[in-house]
Batch of 3 targets.
Target 1
Amino acid sequence: MSKTIDLKLDWATHEAAKYACEKWHYSKSVPVPPLVKVGVWESEIYIGCVLFSRGATQNLVKPYGLKQTEGCELTRIALKSHAAPVSRIMSLAIKFLKKSNPKLRLIVSFADPNQGHYGGIYQATNWIYTGKTPPSVEYLDYRGNRWHGRQVSKAGVKVQFGSARKTPKIADCEKIYCDGKHRYLYPLDKSIKKRVQALSKPYPKRAGSKDSVASCDQQGEGGANPTPALQNQ
């Protein structure tokens, strides 16, 4: 008889999300806020988080005829060794997201082939694939963290979503030329599903994919502070 998995999802603190991203995600970084931070526990042990954000650009969902507040990006799935399928964890996290942000209509996510990712988890859960983004330039800081071109600046300060934020300085980073990322869409209502379904393309090959979350033996501590809605920030 298979053992029942004691899986729990709840809101995570910024500290818990930061720990998971730095320990268990290849980016080693936390996305720019506002964020919805969903923590994940198995047998009362914190095993990571799922993060949603507005994305790196204010035009994330504009191509689909939506306002900025009607869509978001699934930005991180940062987990240590775990028993529950990633697909189940992601599905529950999306329910959390939808409950706290009832006006959301579309989730966008990207799989980075530069990291060996092709979107296997999105393919397994029937996300809509719409092709690759154009090639881009990223920046590698001295800590080994990778940053999108919109997340760095010459002066080390940039206005993002109306607030001035510190950013890595371009002069302190190594420039990296990257292939485009695979783009996946997850509609949250029938109307937008019909709209984006017309953009659907065949899934990219999964051969050699590294989409499963890398294991890690370190344990972290979670939190349960409520997360404000993306639409209210």
Note: Residues 7-132+181-232 form a domain with the Aminopeptidase fold (CATH 3.40.630.30).
Target 2
Amino acid sequence: MIGAILAVAAQALHVALMLAAAPLLAGCVAWLRGRLLGHAGPPPLQPFHDLVRLLRKQAVLPDGASWLFRAAPAADFAASLAAIALVPSFSRGMTTAPVADLLAVLGLLAAARAVRGLAEIDAGSSLGAVAASRTLVMANLAEPALMVAVLTLALLGGGTNLGSLAGVPHDTGFGRWVAQAFAVLALVPVAALDLGNIAVSYHSAIGLALRDGAAWLRRLLWMSVLALFLPPFGIAPPDASPIAWLPGLAIWAGKIAVLAIALAVTQTVLPNLKSIRIEQALGAALLAALLGAVVLFASQGFA
């Protein structure tokens, strides 16, 4: 009984943490980019002010837009929130731990991406339709690299459950560490593709607020997934007391801070990063995933 209560409490705290941290992360990255470029930059709490401003406005819909366009932002936000609720942050003992599968998370992200693309097509603009179609096609091209990387991580962790992946023992061989590094590296271009915004958006007011919130949640989600593989691991085990959550929370926040700094520095040093052909990035991701699988099987063969 106590274990179930702790699991529910951990889940509620996790969801509240994600909802609060996602806009703050976006604001901190924008502020840090401004500082690196030599100007003040927007305040870290600016995303919260933007959300309040958008919620006060009246929505304007394109002519001929159907119910799909109107429902897309809410569906996008719901799918993103459901996906990030499955990714452990400070504890592996949440209510969703038994179903916190990496494939389920990727499926929810794919559903959100499809809804966004269909909404832009439904808006009736040729420019938006072309941009959305290209995003969906690139997502299909990313699947080979994604599946090979997931296979490698599943062999390392004994399954695709994120709790088991976060609990991979530290004393595995050097070859297994290299294989994990290549597999995680392959996820980075896929994450960049999923975080890429569709060029044209016709949502406004609450619809735009939901789309921005979903984008911030997806950014935090991918960083949380990558943080599971950054040492020290530090995540609290299942059935741990709330006292054990505090170190896990601190370590998770530190990992997210490191990844946020890396993102801001990358966007500042490489301002034309978006101009790089996504096909080349996905090809590099597939190569990294294949190298990870080869190193894993080779290390097992020589063990």
Note: The CA atoms of residues 152 and 212 lie 32 Å apart.
Target 3
Amino acid sequence: MTTAENIGGGRLIGYARVSTATAKGRKPQHVGNQLARLKDAGCTLLFSDQITGKRRDRPDWDRCLAALGPGDTLVCTKLDRIGRSLVNLVDIVGMLGKRGVNLVVLDQSIDTRTANGRLVFHIMCALAEWEAAMTAERTVEGLEAARERHGGSLPVRGPSISPDKIATARELATVTDMSAARIAEVIGVSRATLYRHINLAQLRQDAATG
């Protein structure tokens, strides 16, 4: 387990997230434990979101990203508090790095301010690239199998993007500088499908001026 002592100056800013929707038989999660640990780790500014089954947006995550500046360190208890997939996490940390923001994950010994922490993150990047390559390969294999089953051409498809994917795409568009092609790849749709459902340019303009 790593710590979050202030290395090289800058603020320690903590982010916590829980989901109030739980599987049957599981106790509901409470954000207080995470916040207490972040405070004990030295965070001077704390943000938290509680995600419900119906609502997927994370307003405090947006405020947290806006508050982070060069030299600051984002602290969380686990990686899944800030991202929903390995690829998403790599993009988020890459975006933070471009802004001069470091990342500390208390439970997983990740600290991008140190050589060992950067090594762990580079391994994550390699795994994310592998995951994306495997996904693309499986997609191609699936399309070829579908063509064979339908005499060489694919059947007409119905709607191919779910509300959850739309919500994820909107979040990626507003909190990262990912391209439309990259966002489409992350959520598993074509760029054309993404454009049919989301006006990325308008969304980013609204986020910048809001």
Note: The chain has eight helices and five strands.
